[in-house]
DNA sequence: AGCAAATATTGACCATCGTCGATATTGACA
DNA sequence: TGTCAATATCGACGATGGTCAATATTTGCT
């Protein structure tokens, strides 16, 4: 079971494929976690555990198609444009967002199931 | 709705009553979060977003009665006793654990629903 | 009272993180 | 080709966080 989890992680496209980790079915409340399981989940949670990134995620999630342009994300938060870009990169590297460029604009889209996966790992429904 | 949430938080016993925050029903993926909502959720997530604390939580959660003595938590993790004590305090202050002392030993118990609350805020079921 | 065991607190160190200003890159368009 | 707008990257700074050694506190026991 754990081996399956790791082989899935190896072949994944993103740095931290939270969706695949979710397939491990090792919720926080079921059994004692191993060190590497705790490391992986902590890495994903750290990516979300920031007010600016949470607001970015929620704005994108509330947008139609769960997709938003960077230009629409810079003003609502009271932080500079480089900082927004940095947070979006963190969320993308963590496997919560994908980036697609159309013209000069960059659009970030929520990866379906990524948040639900983390949610399921924290507490089984 | 938001006002109810804040009045609940004011009268709560713990510093960060995640259970009450969960009662706000403002999931990450439903609407754009306000700054203070993001601050609160980030604070709770930060408390969990650490490998050592995740392992502590999972050990306690897997124990009978979802309760464990500190003496049983010091050895499985490869960290010193003061560090374990520190992490347990962080989790307790964040509203995930309660502490009860029986004799010389300190027992930490999982607060029912606290993890589920956070989980629900990250992704609505 | 005095000792021993379990746990908490303190103070310090190093690493990581969030933010910013400045600059680089990318792409559209005249 | 040159310019402009949108976004990303870089380097730096202050703040926060995880860990430890040393010490304090609490509690049971003799």
UniProtKB/TrEMBL annotation, chains A, B:
Query: Keyword Transcription on this protein?
Result: yes
Every copy of the HTH arsR-type domain together lies at 33-125
Q: Which GO terms describe its molecular function?
A: DNA binding; DNA-binding transcription factor activity
Q: Which Pfam families does the record cross-reference, listed alphabetically?
A: HTH_5
**Keyword DNA-binding appears in the UniProt entry:** yes
Fetch the SMART domains from UniProt.
HTH_ARSR
Keyword set for this entry?
DNA-binding, Transcription, Transcription regulation
Return the NCBIfam families for the record.
HTH_metalloreg (NF033788)
Q: What's the protein name?
A: Transcriptional regulator, ArsR family
Report the source organism.
Salinibacterium xinjiangense
């Amino acid at each position: 079971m754990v081996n399956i989890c790791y082989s899935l992680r190896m072949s994944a496209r993103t740095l931290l494929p939270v969706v695949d980790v979710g397939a491990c079915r090792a919720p926080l409340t079921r059994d004692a976690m191993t060190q590497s399981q705790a490391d992986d989940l902590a890495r994903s949670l750290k990516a979300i555990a920031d007010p600016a990134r949470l607001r970015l995620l929620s704005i994108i999630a509330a947008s139609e198609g769960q997709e938003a342009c960077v230009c629409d994300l810079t003003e609502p938060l009271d932080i500079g444009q480089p900082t927004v870009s940095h947070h979006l990169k963190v969320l993308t590297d963590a496997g919560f967002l994908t980036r697609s460029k159309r013209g000069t604009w960059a659009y970030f889209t929520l990866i379906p199931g990524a948040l639900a996966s983390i949610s399921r790992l924290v507490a089984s429904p």
